[in-house]
Structure formats: C-alpha cells, structure tokens
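Database export, one record per block. Field names are fixed; values are copied verbatim from the stored entry.
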Amino acid sequence: MILFPEPQSLELFEETYTFPMKAEYNDLTAFFHLVQAGVPGIKTVCAPLLEKEEYHLTVDGDGVTLESSCEEGLFRAVTSLWQLMRRDRGKLPHMRVSDKPALPRRGYMLDISRGKKPRVDTIKGMIDFLAALKYNEFQLYMEGDCFKYAAYPEENADFDCLTPDDIRELDRYCRERFIDLVPNQNSFGHMYTWLKKPAFHHLGLFESEDEVPSTLNPLLPESFEFVSNLYASLLPCFTSEYVNIGLDEAYGLGRYQIEDYCREKGKDVVFMEWLNKLSSHIRDTYGKKVMFWADMIYNYPQSYSMVPRDAIALEWGYELIQSQRMTAHCIAYRDADVRYYVCPSVNTHGALSGRMDVTTFNIRTCGELAAEYGAEGLLLTDWGDGGHPQYWLWSMNPIALAGQYAWNPGKQQDGESFKAEYIRGAERFVDDFAFNGVPLSRLLYRMANYYLLEPERVHVCTMCAKELILPLNETRYAHLFDLKDSGDDFYFDNVTAYVRRVMDDIEKLPVDPLLLREIRMTAQLIELGSELCKVKLHPSASKREAGELAKTIDRILPEFKALWNIRNYEKGIERFYGYLTSRRDELRALNESA
C-alpha cells in the first residue's frame, strides 16, 4: 500500500515528481500550517461540494494539488501527502486520489484508571499517532483515581495524576489535529475504586456491609449527586459535544437493595431510567450528548425505544463469539433508529502482548458491520484490567488496523485471505512511523500469538498472563480452566521456548533502546507466567524451581518500575507490582518448605 489507510480511489502513473524535503516538514501539524500559508509546489483548491473530510490529491508534472471543502478535509489531504513524502524522501509518483472516510467517527479509547496513568507528553505522542492514521476521536476512560476532581480534592490529594489544566492542554492539542477529545466517566458499574472508600461505600449495591460493591444504587438521590459532582469537575475541561457515561457491566442491577424494585419495573426499565436521568442532566447543564456501553440493553430490544434520541449506544465485544453476535445487534439498532458505534479491542488486557489472530478478526468484523449497517463510528478500546502491565507498543498495530477499517473497510471478507493486505499494511505503517523503518511489527505479531500454544483458550486473556495475578494455591479461573486439567509441562515449555525464539529474532534488529526494553520485559513476564503455571501444576515437586522463580521476580521488579516511571505517573504501579511481589513471596514460602 502506498498510502495507509488505503484510500477509496487511487490511480498511479509511471512518471514521478520530486518535492524538495525540509526539516520543518517532518511534523505533520507544522507541515499542515505551512501548506495553509503556502508552500511552493503545493496548490490548495477550495471545492465546496466535497464532504467535510473528503479530499482529492493530484500529483503531476506541475506539482501537488489538494482539493477540499474545509480545513478538516485539507488536513486529511495533507496527512496523505505527508505520508507519501516520508516514504521516498519527497519522490512522489504521479497519481490521482479521491478519498473520504467510510465512517464519520473513528475513535480510540485508552483506560487510565486501573493501573497506568500516562503523563501528558506520553498522551501527546499517542495523539500524533492517531492523527497520522486519520482518527478523529480520542477518549480517556476514567472510573477512579486518575483525575483531580475538584468536588473531592481530599480523595486524590496525595498523588499525581491528570489535572483540569492537563485536560485542557490535551483538548487543545487534539483540536489542532482535528481530533475530538471525548470525556469518558463511568457512572453506574465499574465504580469499585470509589465505593471501596468509606465515604462512598453506602452508595453501592451490596449484600453485606463488609463487601466492596462495584455498582451504584441508582435509586439513592446521593448517587445522582455524587455522579453529578464528578461531571461538574470533569466536563467543563472538554470542548467536545459528547460524553461517554459508561454504564457497562452494572452487575448489581436487579439485585440486593433494588431487587424488588427491578422485579416490579423490569431491569431494563430501571437501567433506562438511570440513563435518561443522566442524559437529561448532561444535556441541560452542559449542552452535551451522551454515549453509553450497550451490553446492559442488547438483550432487551423492547427497551430501545427508551434510548434518548441524541444518545449513542456503544456495541462492544472482543472475542470471536461476541464478534459474530454483533450482526444481529447492529441490525436491531439500525431498525430501531438508535445511533450506535461498534467497539472492538486491541485485546492486550489480560494478555501482556495481545492476541493478534482474535484481534484482527474482531476489528475486521466490526469495521465491515459498521459500514454495512449504518454505524456512526468505530471506537477501538484499550483496557487496563489487572493493573495494566502491558506496554502501549502492543496497541500500535491494532490501532493502525482499526484506522484502516474505520476509514475504508474494503470489500467483504472472502473467507480465505483474512484481508492480509490490511494486516501487512498496518505493520508497514507502524514500522515506518513508530519503529524508524525497522521491520519489527511482524515479530510482535508472532509473539502476541504465544497463547495459541497454551493448553486452554481463555476469554479475553491468556493463561500465562492470568496466573501472574492469581494466588499460587489457586488453579481454577472462573469456569474457564483449571490448571490441574492442563496436562503436563510440555505445553508451557513450548510457550517459553517460542517466546525466547521470537525475542532472539527481535534482538538482532536495531530497535529503539526504550522500546526494546519494553519488549524484553513483556517476554520476561510471559515466560514468568509460563514457568509459574508449571509450578502450580505440581507444587510439591517444584520447590527448587519456585526459589529460582522468586529470584527472577526480584530481578524483574526494578526494571519494571523504571520503565513504568518513564512514561507514566508512579501512582497506579502498586497494583500489578503488588501481584508480582505476592507471587514472589508465595514462591519463597514454597521453596523454604522443602
């Protein structure tokens, strides 16, 4: 692919035009402003009949011509030109490009609540990556201690995190790149971080006073006041007309203190009452429209008529089966005239390096369904479950691939090729943009499929990654697997050998030193999880190995902390760091029992 995302129409000719490169052209946004002001060899033409992001790009003997109807369309045209210029240092083939996005909204969401809280400069680098892929929406997911809420200053006074000024700075940075920074504050389920605090515990749904709830009680006036205070602290920092209010996985709905009320009115009606109450408050107070995760309603199609008219339902699903079920859901939203997005995942949460065969299927399915059944957007999610130990470099290829499908999903999957050209195009883009031309992405893809060697397939995670956060004496994970049924060491020996082999190939490449350290850490954590599985399979016969693994964790911890602090606030590291130290202490105890 000469351009990525691949445009809607591209004609190439044999002749070339050499455009003189300058250092100031290396930054996309700076180059855009230079083109606006006038650059010799580049002509900009106002074409009022083109859509907002539509553009035409022509290269011929006279130079470059860019046609668009507004600044946003010109920015997309300049982005394509900038990418072409970077490829061959200004040597451009004669061409005609006619291009516009398949989906109006193309977004990426990053979880900053359950471990990693990236610093402002780290987030700006992510935004630049998104802009180069023609994304126009970015969300920072918040559910707990990640933002300085003015309404509750005592709750985050003792640690660094994003401030209102930080958000305003990021909002301006996004707008300069024609990206909409959308606030994302969960407001029903996933409220564990708040509800474990004594001052807020009573707002939750729970069976006994000593348990920590995760779902707000929507019938309490104090719950609405609490959420309203979160909004009052957060929403004025954003210029977006949208806010994602979450509402997913509200597992307390229909239970505990509100069981009788839900039985009388229906769980879906109670959910819709809360959704409409929040939507009305946000619309009346801030002039914004809401987005919400749709998992709590898609089994209640009769409730679709109660969705606020200007709200957007977010249809999410990350596994193979969930991806397949989306077709029926998308048709139902379309037929009920409900605005909606499709939401695949980078699939790195719970896996350390992702699970690329699942990820490519998930993204491709969502992109094709969105285009076929009238979704307004695609939002790629990047979650931080389990302490967020994974590095962002593992998200880059899924982000690139989703950028392609959101801009131009192409023809329907034919059942044979798996659209390999899109996967390879994403890899080439990431190698060029993020890895300085080093062909690293294919090896990352291979390492990310290590879990295919594990004896069991696990929902949205891998065995090796999951065992790092489970106690040594716990072999069962939900209903999905029990290590006692996993055969013998053979499977995990294969995982270790496979990851080491891929890492050996990566070490031969001139990879950026910081990225290489992060890849090494990922490989070490996968190997640690693999070897831990063997100890858990037969602990009585693994006491010596347990001692060696404890020493391995001691070697890993300082580097893990050092890498974390380069890109992120330190607050948040304690969760996954604590899992590692707990496993180390358990392994030591097992070794000392010999």
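Remark 1: The chain has 18 helices and 15 strands.
Remark 2: The radius of gyration is 25 Å.
End of record.
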